[in-house]
Amino acid sequence: MRTEDVLAAIATGLWRWDNASGTVTLDSEAARLLGLPAEPVVLPEVAVRSRFHPVDWNEINGIVNLAVAEGTLAEARLRIMDVDGRVLRTVRSRSKPLENRAPDGTTDYELIGTIQEIAEPQPGTTAAHTPITGDWRRSREAFLLDAGRALAEARSTAEVLRVAASLSMPGFSPDGLAVFGVAGDRLSIIGHHGHDPGDEGPFSDMPLETDYPAAEVVRTGRAIYLPTPEDYKRRFPAAWPLAQRFDRFSWAFLPLIVAGRTMGAWMAAFKHPASFSPDERSVLTTVARMLAQALQRAVVAESERELTTGLQRSMMPQLGPEIPGMRIAARYVPTGGGLQVGGDWYDMIPLPSGRFALVIGDVQGHDVRAAGLMGQLRIAVRAYASEGHRPDAVLSRASRFLAGLCSSPESGPYGDDGGRDSDSDSDFQSPRFATCLYVECDPKTGMLEVARAGHPDPAIRMADGTVLMRPTAGGLPLGIVLDTDYPTTRFTLEPGETMMLCTDGLIETGGHDLDTGWARLRAVLESDVHESAYDEQVPGARTAAAGHVAPPHLERLADLLVQAVHGPSSHHTTGPLADRREDDIAVVLLCRESADRGAGTTLPHPARPVRRTVLTVAQVEPERIAGVRQQIRELLHDWADPDQVDSAVLMVSEMVTNVLTHTDGDALLVAEAVGELGVRRLRVEVADGSDELPHKRQPGEMSSSGRGVLLMEMLADAWGVDPRGEGKSIWFELHEQSKTDADPVF
Length: 746
What we know:
Layout: H1 3-9, E1 12-18, E2 23-26, H2 28-33, E3 41-44, H3 45-49, H4 54-70, E4 74-81, E5 87-101, E6 107-118, H5 136-153, H6 157-166, E7 176-183, E8 186-193, E9 206-207, H7 213-220, E10 224-226, H8 229-235, H9 240-244, E11 250-258, E12 261-270, H10 278-315, E13 326-333, E14 344-350, E15 356-363, H11 368-386, H12 391-405, H13 422-429, E16 434-441, E17 447-453, E18 459-461, E19 467-469, E20 474-475, E21 488-492, E22 498-502, H14 504-508, H15 514-526, H16 532-535, H17 552-566, E23 585-592, E24 611-617, H18 625-635, H19 642-662, E25 667-674, E26 681-688, H20 708-715, E27 718-723, E28 728-735
Parallel strand pairs: 17-20
Antiparallel strand pairs: 1-2, 1-6, 2-3, 4-5, 5-6, 7-8, 7-12, 8-9, 10-11, 11-12, 13-23, 14-15, 15-16, 16-17, 17-21, 18-19, 18-22, 22-23, 24-25, 25-26, 26-28, 27-28
Helix pairs in contact: 5-10, 11-12, 15-17, 18-19, 19-20
């Protein structure tokens, strides 16, 4: 007879655990004992480790390290778990640790030994189990620590019940669990484990006067232990027929008490006889206390989540009906820390003129008052807009409204402080401000009128995927000064372009400033990953649904923008990522569909879409010349020759500066890049209202002006001046060419 057959006959398997490679080799009997198919197999370490009870694994680590240090055998008892967390069997392991020294000098080891099944105690025998691994008391303490940690981390009632179902107590493990809750004078099961669906029927709605152990535990607040079926039948004869069909031998019913109030009961049922020794009763009582506390925390947390979710849904509007030729997607992600509403908001407002307005804003703070002010301010902005006011007037009125809300009265009818507690209300009386961006949109022409109050500028994703920050005129945040002017900026959203509005939480979260944050978002906006969702869509599906429907790729783009900050799924779930949230986030995407495809996606075209930007620089705002230079750099961010980009920026700066210096009007700049990558043509025009034409000059070495025409002759491939009815237009062209290396690189 072979050795393998002999070992299999006595339920003994062979294994080899290589710690260096992280693999475990099992023969067929060892695989069977671990709950795997009975055949030789080589598995990764993590797959085998998951079969051991966590408490036993912690113990065996210490035993193996001691055996390595003393050069002895490592002996231990281990519980084998199935995928559902139930104990399949108990095995004894005897193995010899062998050291392996690697060429780099590091030392590792491998275990070679046997595992053998240990027979479970038979019914009627004592349930005083021998220790599983090491000292039973140390195992109990480790179990209670693990159980307490797991229950403390549970965030909902369902999670608490899942943790309770997975508890495997040292030395004795219940195979059936049930948690009873109290509602008025009725007892019901709120969760169970180890039973089939429908088994909870007779216990789902039970009067507290019922002769049932859980009901008596709730009435008296004292635990009930039933070591044998005879004890159960003798004490609760009416309920015994209900329990008899589950074929169990011992039961423990413990009260769930929080702050002196019994909120329910916990049942632990055993298929093997349990004597419920003082140590075992101590473990059960401790678990019941932790379970009660965890359920109470879960109930409070769920109530708070329900409250904040309802508050959030009431404050954050729906995007409204579908707009012909336009598509909108939006996301709102509150900051972490319990309160799931904050000071950020967005809104879409139908206007009397047939246009619509998009609003996005951020009230200072992340607390309850910020959320309250946000709700009031959002309603005020909607009211002013619905009256038909222009964008600048809407923000002026909103600023006056917020300043009035935040101004605390000097005295009240009950004294200097109005009878209120000045300490508790100090924060609610402190002034707050808010940033806001208001965009009025004409869906027929794509014309946008933007008024900005201290808010980040919008970003435009062009039809070819290029992203530009659109500089807009702005004023102070709302609520700082009663009477503030908010200039309006006009530009057109071309077919196939997408505009992004966001709060600073999307930009600066994660330690970023405005520059690095925009670079992170720009990479997402310019990527084409989100457009694959559009290609998989059934043709016509986006116009078939009632109400507002954004194309799949626009929704995907909104998800990717949030994921760039918080990770996957952070906009619609709370969880571990909540701790990483530093600020509220609101983001709105507005897309104007093109004739052939919608929302910024492009089909193969005979010619690449034109890349265009239009800006106006007024006489009173020469500081915007820096923004013009930045716009040209962003427009040419993928230009082949960086020197040509520098030349274009220099010429544009010179042209706009000359208009502001030598005329009394504003400068209108139009820049567009046409053609395929590598062979594009850049044309820039700067128009003004003066009839005086530029002429060539010969500036001296110390002269501070007169070089504009000379620069264009030297740097531009073509340039000229076109007179108009009123004023003129100065233009230049650059033809894209690859940069040649001046020196070879070694």
